[in-house]
Amino acid sequence: MARILDSIDSPEQLRTLSIPQMEQLAGEIRNEIIEKVSVRGGHLAPNLGVVELTMALHYIFNTPDDLLVWDIGHQAYVHKLLTGRRERFHTIRQFGGLSGYLRREESPYDVFGASHASTSISAALGLAAARDLQGKEQKVIAVIGDGALTGGMALEALNNAGSLKKNLVIVLNDNEKSISDNVGALSHHLSQVRRVQTSPSYQRLREMAKGSIERLPVVGDRAREAAGRAETSFKQFMLHSKSGVIFEELGIKFFGPFDGHDIPLMLDVFENVKKIEGPVIVQVVTKKGKGWHVAEGDSTKWHGPGAYDYTTGTIKKNPNDPPTYTEVFANTLVGIAEKDTSVVGVTAAMEEGTGLKKLHQRFPERYFDVGIAEQHAVTFAGGMAVSGLCPVVAIYSTFMQRAFDQVVHDICVQDLHVVFAMDRAGIVGEDGQTQHGVFDIAFMRMLPNMKVMAPKDEEELRHMLYTAIYMDGPVSLRYPRGKALGVPLSQDLHALEVGKAELLSPSTLEEAQRMDCAILAYGSTVAQAQLAAAELAEEGHRVAVVNARWAKPLDEEMIISLAQGTRHLVTIEDHALMGGFGSAVLELLEREGMRDIDVRRIGLPDTFVEHGAPTILKELYGLSSAHLKEVIRDMLASQQHTLA
Ligand SMILES: Cc1ncc(C[n+]2csc(CCOP(=O)(O)OP(=O)(O)O)c2C)c(N)n1
After folding, report:
1. CA triple 548-553-554, angle to 5 deg
2. In 10 A of CB 124, how many CB atoms?
3. What are 159-182's pLDDT values in tens digits?
4. How far is the CA of 406 from the centre of ligand 1 (A)?
5. 629 is catalytic
6. How far apart are the C-alpha atoms of 557 and 554, rounded to whole Å?
7. Which residues line ligand 1 (CB under 6 A)?
């Protein structure tokens, strides 16, 4: 049978469908997503949960003239399928293919780019304010999850929306989940609102819901019909309790909860809601992973799986793979916390991703998930540091960006001992532009009191974590996404000397000074540097290799000695060139008046790195050992040229 999906190239075509056709389409969309995402992995459960919701929004609102703003955008695959990107959908998250999030340049339907949480209400409110100033007729709709609603920005935006009184529809996609279980008092509040539906005082509820429907300016036939249905379906209806729902107190009308998988109901709700003046929140209850039992059963595991077999529902994993950096970090942290009760862990809704779940399970009282609230996480850690605890804030490099002022103002100015364990540092791959962690060396390095380090492998990561926990002041430690190198792990931990690099080859500094050049490699690039040096040796080039370990304080003594001896330095880092480790080396040489040293820096250019497999991206941006060799050959050739 021909698929309806194959005839949908825009929401206009969707709007011609009947309810049974839309129901069939919902099933086809789910199958398409389950199958296509299985190839490279991606955000599965969030998308399966919003199929009917997305269809209803595009059906009722006149997109793209009406402006639909998604929060994070990890749940926008259905939106992509319905807005002219169906044929390219199989390329999602691949180099040159569709983005896994929202991008304005990808489609006029992607009104506002996203991937970091909690931005949708702010952006939508801005669009609504501009619309009114420009005298346009448009609906503006923000779709935000209950997880993203825990972010400070979302709350700041609600505060503003409640007073600006612009016409704005906020759809709260409430599936009770962030990546893991949602946390916090607001989440508790929402679950109270939901729970009333199933309370014993059903008669009271029925009355309230009836009143709630009547409150809507237009009651659709489908809603009225459904209102007369049996008790169970009636429970799916809107419950509106003016007092007690926090948003009403902020001046934002609140409707819900509604069953987000009931297409006729969704259509009626949005048809009604779009006529309401002022800001409105509609609580739509959905099930993450809906329609595929494996994903419904464990939506955390299926939030963003890697490649999987969709016929069996198993995630592909090679049992012989080395552990990930995250796993090594988490195990080491728990080991240290076993012996030291002052160590506590803080995460902003990323207990799975950062590995803090291990600490959560072992020491629940010393584990804090603060919600998607990186700014708060940092200052909260600051408070604990003042009281003598040692907080380890486990956070992705990209999300650390959110909390920059907190790091400056609350931590560094007061020289507080907080450890920032920054996972997913460097190129992260398929998640692309907004998720690469390529700015942290720069924004951490420039801050007074901050120390900045990165390990060459997972064994060094363990000692660096230990070092960070037992030193003073703020420390940032970055390590990459994914599989570690598989090196043996020692039993004991020891502190590394602060600001001391490791000369990997040759064995003494005197010998190293007599080499043709020295590579100063930072963090995960050390392995490429060693490979390049070994291969260049076969061509007769003598290249020293240094594992820099610290971007701040730099091992000034070693760098100056090598510069004086070899007069040729190459720096390499998985980070933006501007302000990174190589810049620190240049600054040192400039300060020392060593302007005649030939320095070549390898790192990322002044552009946002695209999405794609890390190997492709590293090749493209020159982070491969092949490119490193080319740079060194060129440098040494130009030296001979000068000498001749
Ligand atoms: C600032 C920020 N911190 C962390 C994340 C990582 N993250 C991606 S999706 C997600 C959960 C979002 O939950 P919710 O908004 O409820 O959407 P759902 O996945 O449940 O549909 C988190 C924490 C992020 N995208 N942005």
Report:
1. 40
2. 29
3. 999 999 999 999 999 999 999 999
4. 21
5. no
6. 9
7. 46, 72, 74-75, 115-117, 145-148, 173, 175, 177-179, 288, 348-350, 372, 374, 399, 402
Q: Which atom of ligand 1 is nearest to the CA of 144?
A: 15
Contact indicator for 476, 453 with CB cutoff of 8 Å? yes
Cα 74 to middle of ligand 1, angstroms: 8
- Determine the residue of 149, 176, 299, 372 to mutate for testing ligand 1's pocket, defined as the one with the most ligand atoms within 8 A of the Cβ atom: 372
- Residue 230 pLDDT grade (very low, low, confident, very high; cuts 50, 70, 90): very low
**Ligand 1 atom 9: the closest Cα is on which residue?**
179
| DSSP class of 411 | I
Sorting pLDDT into bands at 50, 70 and 90, what band is 245?
Answer: confident
Q: Which residue has the tokens 């048809």?
A: 271
Residue 402 is among the residues annotated as catalytic for this protein: yes
pLDDT at site 215? 52
Looking from the CA of residue 149, the nearest atom of ligand 1 is 15
Q: Are 408 and 445 in contact (CB under 8 A)?
A: no
Q: Tell if the pTM clears 0.70, that is, is over it.
A: yes
374 is catalytic: yes
Distance CA 338, CA 331 (A): 11
Domains of the chain and CATH, by start: 5-297 (3.40.50.970), 325-478 (3.40.50.970), 502-643 (3.40.50.920)
Determine what percent of the chain is predicted with pLDDT higher than 70: 92
pLDDT at position 235 over 90: no
Q: How far apart are CA 468 and CA 477, in angstroms?
A: 8
Q: pLDDT digits over 343-381, tens only?
A: 999 999 999 999 999 999 999 999 999 999 999 999 999
Characterize the bridge pairing of strands 419-423 and 543-547.
unpaired
**220 against 86, higher pLDDT:** 86
The residues with which 308 forms a beta bridge, in sequence order, are 315
